[in-house]
Amino acid sequence: MINVNQSLLISNSSITNPEDDSVVSNDFSTVLGALILSLVFLLGFPGNVFIVWSILARIRRRSVTTLLILNLACADGFLMALTIFFIIYLAKQTWSFGNIMCKGLFYLCNTNMYASIFLITLMSLHRLVAVVFPQKLSVWVTRKIVSRVIIGMWVLVMLFALPSLIFRDVRIDSDEKNRIRHVCAPNHTVARHVRFQYAFETVAGFFLPYVIIITSYVIILRRLRKTKFRRKVRSENLILAIVVMFGIFWLPYHVINMIQVAAEWYPDDSPTRHTLDHIAKSSRAVTSALAFISSCANPVLYTFAGKSYIKKNGFAFMAKLFEGTAQEQTGNKKSRNKGKEDCTINTDVSIHLTQNGTVGQNTSCNVNI
């Protein structure tokens, strides 16, 4: 609870704050945001917990893709658990959890944003190595290397999210009806802080990772056109669906970031700045709530991808989706052994390799990502 002295200090410091409006200043936006987050919580939290349980309890030998999906589900599930605080914030239109929670919750949300896109990027890079350099996969992608990369990724995302911890505080605000309320809002005191934080979020947390992802898939598609590629597994389409869904739901958030950055280049009394500020502030709650949807969309994607397993395997269908059945692996092995050299790597892509590892038709090598 904020005492009187803290409230006066926060109130006085916000007088010169260029971001006097808050995300809870628009009634329609906050109500819509609260409804979206409520649906996201009801769908996303149990869905991601189920994914984590399926991988940890049902799968003994976990592939690289499965380990990355496990980390993604853990991050998304944890974020879903935090949505209850933001639902209360939007519904009450006042922050009731103190300054430490204000900083901490938004920091954790930003950490999840970076973690999600970085994990998806790692999935795409792993796919690239498996298709373009399959003979190097067992050397470059070992369990030790993958573990170190994932740990390093988590350290990096925690560093990248620090601006959301620094540039946010609780302050006293009042609306047009002179109702006093606490808001958890950015505390940028100069324009360059606004430009730095939101531009950095968009470039590091969206633009650059997507450039890597798109480049990876362009190279993959070009390589596959030169081979007799046999699509055998669902993970390629599944990863592409994850990439597309993340982009759809996070793009509006980053568009608002860029609008807010653009507004800071205009003078304070500029009509253009006023218009851009109004667009950004009135849309922030809805676009942030839409971004949360990406964390609950993955369980839905996995369910549709694994629907053929549901009747046969029941609650184990998710595990079967990620690892494939033993019968399918046995069948693939028998077909590969008919007059051709056999090699197996744990991936989901089937390509033809020659004896020296170059693309050709003489030797069949099954690669299952």
UniProtKB/TrEMBL annotation:
Localization of this protein: Cell membrane
UniProt keyword list: Cell membrane, Disulfide bond, G-protein coupled receptor, Glycoprotein, Membrane, Phosphoprotein, Receptor, Transducer, Transmembrane, Transmembrane helix
Any matching Pfam family: 7tm_1
GO molecular function, one term: leukotriene receptor activity
Major site of localization recorded for this protein: membrane
Superkingdom assignment: Eukaryota
One term under GO cellular component: plasma membrane
GO terms of biological process kind: inflammatory response; phospholipase C-activating G protein-coupled receptor signaling pathway; positive regulation of cytosolic calcium ion concentration
Membrane topology (UniProt): Multi-pass membrane protein
Keyword Zinc appears in the UniProt entry: no
InterPro entries hit by this protein: ATII_rcpt, Formyl_rcpt-rel, GPCR_Rhodpsn, GPCR_Rhodpsn_7TM
Annotated G-protein coupled receptors family 1 profile domain residues: 47-302
Annotated transmembrane regions: 31-56, 68-91, 111-133, 145-167, 198-220, 240-263, 283-305
Family designation: Belongs to the chemokine-like receptor (CMKLR) family.
Descriptive protein name: Leukotriene B4 receptor 1-like
Classification of source organism: Eukaryota, Metazoa, Chordata, Craniata, Vertebrata
Protein encoded by which gene: LOC114458445
